[in-house]
Each structure stands twice: as C-alpha cells, then as structure tokens.
Design a protein that fits this description.
By secondary structure, the protein is α+β, with helices and mostly antiparallel strands. Helix content is 48%, strand content 20%.
C-alpha cells in the first residue's frame, strides 16, 4: 500500500508521459509508492500482460511503410499491425509507424529484431509497442521488416499506407531514374509480380505451377492418351505464359502497354534494370 499521497497532478503527469488511462496511472503510482520511473515500468509490464492476453487475436489491419536513406542506397519496408481498421486509420498510429521506419533508417537496422531493440524516446521500440498496447488496449506489433541495398532504391507508399513497395535499380540515381523507379514501384503495387524475371522465380514455385497445369491437362478428355512427355512440353509453354504475366520485367508496362517493364526501363538508360523489389500489403 502506498505511503505517499497520490495527487491528481501526479496522475496527470504520468498520463501525459505514458498516454495510459487515468485509473491505470493512479494504480501504477499507488503500487510503486509514487515512484514515476517505477510506475512507467509498471505500466509497461501491464502492457506486456495485455499483449499476452490478446496474443490469440488476429492483427490483420495496420499500415505498411517504405522508406529509404537520403542517398537512396538503402531502403526498408515495415508492417505495423493492429486488430482493427479503426486503430489503423488513427493519425497517432500512422505517425508511430512512420517514426519506427525513421528509426530503422537512422540506425541502419538489418532485421526485425534489431529494430525492436533500437532506442526510442529513452526506451526501445519493443517497449514502445508494449506501452502503446497498454494505452489503446489493442494488440499491435511490427510483424514484417524487409531491407534492400542497391545503386538506387526507390520507395512507394500507396494512399492509406495499405501497400508499400521498394524497387532496387542497378544504376546510380538521377531524376529520370527515380521517376522511372516510382513508375515501376506503382506497377508492382498494382500487379503484384512474383519475381523480377523468370530466373528469379523460386524453383518450388515453378514446380508447383507446372504440376497444377499438368494435372489440369490430364483431366481434360481431349488430352486422354497423350504421352507424358507431350503433356510436359505443353505445360512448359503454359509456364512461359505464366512468367510473362507474373514476372515484373516481362509484364506489359501499365502506363504503356506496347512495352514490357524491361523495355520501358531501357528507354531511360540502355542497361537500366530492376535487381530486386519488396512489396508488403495489408489484407
């Protein structure tokens, strides 16, 4: 039991520091005998308990943020999730995600774990997440972190922060290259390609798609009695069509369907191409 008097001013001060509710702040100060630092720790621990109690709740909403260093050599994209669309659209929540992306860039974070361990307002990013859980009573977390390095990395954040893209290009940036990079990033946001080019498609994806195509063909009465090697060759042709539709450089360029994305990039510089990309989305 507290042996000191907890005033309304004390409670309000702690509330301003932490954003927690008035009753929670009073309880924290009473439990810690008026010690503000201990009360803040108490509230963080409460946040951890809240997060644990809500760990079975799906966090399918949130925002995704893409950001690059000033020199455009490194880019990161993160996903800060929430349980509800109401929280995801809140300005404070969006600003928190933006500040986490800034922290990742400023500290040259290379993984989700390193980001959560970074200093943030005299605590860590991980602690800030727990503190926010305590404040809003809803499970939030950074669930995805991706990083790309290249000669030029261009970010794109779609309206509402529901899709975020990084595009890595093989040439040092200038105005024309960065504009082209944004156009390609918008293509990725809209078309969601599976890889940069056919050579970049994971072998297991190729095998899975071919197996599906072959099973479909074998179920077709018109293919009854056809030899396996013939079916396999036809499947290879269908796979090539799949790559044209689903790999970035082979896709028709959305802004000019007479060119592929790869051909469009060559109109900017003859050897300009995409070396990698990252795309995160909500839902």
């Amino acid at each position: 039991m507290s042996t000191v008097t907890i005033t309304a001013t004390d409670v309000n001060k702690l509330r301003q520091q932490t954003g927690a509710g008035m009753m929670d702040c009073r309880a924290a100060l009473q439990e810690t005998n008026g010690d503000f630092e201990a009360a803040i720790d108490y509230l963080r621990k409460k946040g951890q308990k809240v997060a644990a109690k809500r760990s079975d709740r799906d966090a399918k909403e949130g925002v995704v943020i893409a950001k690059t260093t000033a020199d455009k050599k490194v880019g990161i994209v993160i996903n800060l999730t929430s349980e509800t669309d109401f929280v995801a659209k809140n300005e404070d929540f969006i600003n928190l995600a933006l500040s986490f992306s800034e922290t990742a860039i400023n500290n040259n974070c290379t993984s989700l774990e390193s980001l959560k361990a970074c200093a943030y307002d005299n605590i860590t990013v991980g602690d800030k997440i727990m503190e926010t859980v305590a404040k809003i009573g809803e499970k939030i977390d950074i669930t995805s972190f991706e990083r790309i390095e290249a000669e030029t990395v261009v970010p794109y954040n779609h309206a509402g922060y529901r899709v975020a893209v990084l595009v890595a290009l093989n040439k040092p940036g200038n105005d024309a290259i960065e504009v082209a990079g944004k156009d390609v990033a918008m293509q990725i946001a809209a078309m969601n390609p599976v890889a940069v080019d056919p050579q970049s498609v994971p072998a297991e994806t190729v095998a899975r798609e071919k197996a599906i195509i072959m099973d479909q063909m074998k179920a077709d009465p018109k293919m009854e009695g056809k030899p396996e090697d013939m079916i396999s060759k036809i499947a290879d042709g269908k796979i090539n069509a799949y790559f044209k539709e689903n790999t970035l450089l082979a896709q028709p360029f959305v802004k000019d369907g007479s060119k592929t994305v790869g051909e469009f990039l060559k109109t900017i510089e003859s050897d300009l191409t995409v070396t990698a990309f990252s795309r995160l989305n909500i839902g």
